[in-house]
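Morning!

As promised:
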Amino acid sequence: MDHAVIQLIVSGALMGLVYALVAYGFQLTYATSKSINFGQGELVMLSAFVSLTLTNTGLPYYLMIPGGLLFGVIAGLFVERAGVRLALEQKSEGWILMTIILGLFGISAAENIWGRDDRPFPTPIPTEPIQFFGVSITPLEISVAVGVVLIMVVIELFKRKTLLGKAFEAVSADRDAAELMGISATRTIMLSYGLSGLVAALAGILVSPITTVGPTMASALVLKAFSVAVVAGLESGFGVVIVGLFLGSLESLTSFYVGSGWREAPGLVLLILALAIRPTGIFGKAVIRKV
Amino acid sequence: MLVVTDLYAGYGMSEVLMGTSLTVKKGTVVALIGPNGAGKTTTMRTISGSIKPTRGEIILDGAPVQGLEPSYIARLGLAHAPEGRKVFGPLSVEDNLLLGAFTRLPRFFGFHAKAADDLEKVYNLFPRLKERYRQASGTLSGGEQQMLAIGRALMARPKVVLLDEPSMGLAPVIVDEVFDIIRRLKESGITLLLVEQSAKRALEVADYAYVMERGRIAVEGVPQELQKNERVIAAYLGN
């Protein structure tokens, strides 16, 4: 393979990690409640705007990270309370429409508060490429990769090493039995929406300096993340990373060799193929059971 | 310890329980037997809060609990080992046990040390679980899963244990093993409400028993009496 191809794969893969991160946010809430926030993209966008606003307040620059993340958690909890909980209690699918509506509100709010124009997100991290074996990567891109991997490792450790994390897994495995152990499913679902909001906010903060910040910045992103989540299956955190990297590279190759107008095509084709051939996803597993 | 009075409950429009009453005194094993569809499992599920009763009262250790959330009732000292075991399949045996003690352990770190004594007790009772403590519980055999479900219930140090159909789907040898365990728990002073298809075995281990038919208690008494009751013999102890 020549360097141009490797270069395309590497820069595509980095974007793919952001898809993986947003897809991971879908998985977190799906695990506990079998519901997802269809307004996740708007949550990414709003968190990016909040962080951008924080950088303009004269506070230390990096305070925008905890600030944006905190906003993400609160927004995630709000979505759960306002759009999801009632629907789940009534065993209805109303959360689908409710989360879409909340997302649309989010776009309107952003347009009214910050305007419709895309804005640059200033960053102190250098954007001068560094050469690795003939492939050039910018430190900014590296920061995205590090951020994505770090948050996913932290959340996976939380799920495996703490009792609350194990309770999270227990609710995913069998909600009724978890309740019998004194684990409140309602609170666990809240927790999952909070974490999902955190993940979305981080995606927004990481990606904005590369793209720009605007009310529709995440609409394509979230579609691709959805495609990654479906292709990988809604259970496997490892799977979304693999599929995310794959889709990101594929997009970048497609846009170079076929034409930049075809950039969004691979994600949608993969989504259709997955739904037609293997709706549980490549990494979705049938439950192991032996009686 | 557990007093159920005139309980009505069901699924949607269909009433399953129509005035069930029963009492489990502290330190006794009480059996609830009867045909399929009589409402035994529904009684259990209503006591532990998964089903909300439409009428009636459930008193756990002196406090009314009817209508409360299952997780809240669990915190008040009720452990329910449900029908079909319901172990957390993807989680390890030990994680399942630790989650049994969820209500009294720290949420983040140090929970393992705090549960060490209880783990030791459960492993003494079920050495096979100790051998497999890291295995995903979904890959255990049916008998091992049943033992895990019982162990998990004990981890909570509950005031009352509900045990639903422990022999379901198990080979006779394994059923013997499960009932040996129930007998040992009885000697150690457990307060247990046992639902069981196999009336004969249930009556052998129980201090007191209720026979349920169509959502009501039809007959009750000490096992020695019930074993002589013609109606019970005809319906459940025949052959």
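Chain A touches chain B at residues 162-164, 166-167, 169-170, 172-174, 176-185, 287-291 (CB under 8 Å).

Hope this helps with the figure draft.
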